[in-house]
Amino acid sequence: MATETRTIRPLSPHIQIYRWQIPMLTSIITRITGNALAVSAVLVVWWLLALASGPDAYALANSVITSWFGDIVMVLSAWGLWYHYLAGLRHLYYDAGKGLDIPTAEKLGLAVIAGSVVLTVLTVIIV
Question: Which one, 83, 85, 102, 121, has the greatest CB density within 10 A?
């Protein structure tokens, strides 16, 4: 029977091997914002249920939503909504078979990130 010689190799390429690219970053951000939006939706539903439940429940929910923590959560939720919306438009463009080359995909990714930040700032200023 042959003796087994084992070479210590990684099981899969480690993150240090890959060069970070904008499409990779936008994919990760899309997943994170999608999950965060689900959590913030629960917070908004709680606020609406408290509004329907009576003044005591509403006072508690409203104090949480209008606190500094609630302000941060709501601004980040607005950013997540705008980001998800623009990323969805970008994917519709991809589904049409356009913009799939690397330079265009990187430009579209930067446009989604920058556009979501600008739209969030405008939303905070207007609202």
Answer: 83
Tokens at 102, concatenated: 């690397």
CATH code for the domain of 33:
1.20.1300.10
In a domain, 114, yes or no: yes
**Which tens digit of pLDDT belongs to each residue from 50-66?**
999 999 999 999 999 99
The range of the structural domain enclosing residue 86 comes to 22-126
Evaluate whether residue 14 is within a structural domain. no
Residues of 105-127 as b/e, b for ≥16 C-beta within 10 angstroms?
beebbeebbebbeebbeeeeeee
The total number of structural domains in the chain stands at: 1
In sequence order, the 6+-apart residues with CB closer than 8 A to the CB of 90 are: 26, 99, 108, 109, 111, 112
Contacts of 68 (CB under 8 A, 6+ apart): none
The closest of 71, 100, 1, 81 to 37, measured between CA atoms, is 81
**pTM (2 decimals)?**
0.81
Structure tokens at 88: 């969805």
